[in-house]
Amino acid sequence: MNIRQLQVFQAVCRELSFTGAAKSLYMTQPAVSHMISSLEAETGCVLFDRIARRIYLTEAGKTFLDKATRILELYGDLTSDACGAAHPAPIRLGSSITIANFLLPSLLREFAGLCSAPVRVEVDSARNIQKRLMDNEIDAALVEGVIPHKQLVKFPFSSFTLTVVCSPSYPLAKKGPVPIDALVREPLLLREKGSAIRDAFDSVLLLKHLSAEGAWTSVNSQALIEAAKNGLGVSILPEILIKNELAAGTLTQLCIEGFSLENTNYIVYHRDKYLTQPLQAFIGLVKQKEKTARTDGSSFP
């Protein structure tokens, strides 16, 4: 097996056509077919299904592509800049929305003082960010909640409490502890499905054989805060996000029977990912935050 075989295999996966791959690589179609057949013989796996003059990646082919892409990425780094010192490649960093609002800016400010490598950030729901990690579209990510993919390495570095809130004038605010089955009958102001906050809330309900539909559903937590302040319903949000509103009395916390939830924040990367020195430095910085908090009992941020 050699790099050229992997490059040809990657091109066939991209084009889903031997002819298209041959054209993009300036090769003949029989040469491409021969390389793929040799690769399949060498690996002992069928990488493509050939059905009705079309090709489709098999499950073995998908696994092989994932690993081949990482090898080719590393090979590209070596051939373009052996040390990576003259022009360090940007760190492609993903972040879930809550972490981007409160933790990421201070981390990147501190990182800028340690390393000159550029950082590109993409902010999305925790579920989408994890998918981008699996697809090698980003190098590492800061996400909260459950990490279901076994291929992802994760290290916890902080956590936050989820709180149920409403306007002080909302009818539930004048009552004592609220049963959770009564909560789900209220107009709920919820984050979108796929966000770690929504997934955590839905998981609690599932354990109690309940479910909820949002009167509002939003990717923007601030919109939910404003809706709650105006008495339009009840929201479930990170306490760190609404501490000013709670202090000012524009929102009040509800006591929900059987509801106690904390989301853990993680630094995550693919186990097969080549970690450049700048990326290692960033991961190390995040890990150090967790160690410091554990040692002195403080929280981050």
Automatic annotation (TrEMBL):
<comment type="similarity">
    <text>Belongs to the LysR transcriptional regulatory family.</text>
</comment>
<dbReference type="Pfam" id="PF03466">
    <property type="entry name" value="LysR_substrate"/>
</dbReference>
<keyword id="KW-0238">DNA-binding</keyword>
<keyword id="KW-0805">Transcription regulation</keyword>
<keyword id="KW-0804">Transcription</keyword>
<dbReference type="InterPro" id="IPR036388">
    <property type="entry name" value="WH-like_DNA-bd_sf"/>
</dbReference>
<protein>
    <submittedName>
        <fullName>Transcriptional regulator, LysR family</fullName>
    </submittedName>
</protein>
<dbReference type="Pfam" id="PF00126">
    <property type="entry name" value="HTH_1"/>
</dbReference>
<dbReference type="GO" id="GO:0000976">
    <property type="term" value="F:transcription cis-regulatory region binding"/>
</dbReference>
<feature type="domain" description="HTH lysR-type">
    <location>
        <begin position="1"/>
        <end position="58"/>
    </location>
</feature>
<dbReference type="InterPro" id="IPR005119">
    <property type="entry name" value="LysR_subst-bd"/>
</dbReference>
<dbReference type="InterPro" id="IPR036390">
    <property type="entry name" value="WH_DNA-bd_sf"/>
</dbReference>
<dbReference type="InterPro" id="IPR000847">
    <property type="entry name" value="LysR_HTH_N"/>
</dbReference>
<dbReference type="GO" id="GO:0003700">
    <property type="term" value="F:DNA-binding transcription factor activity"/>
</dbReference>
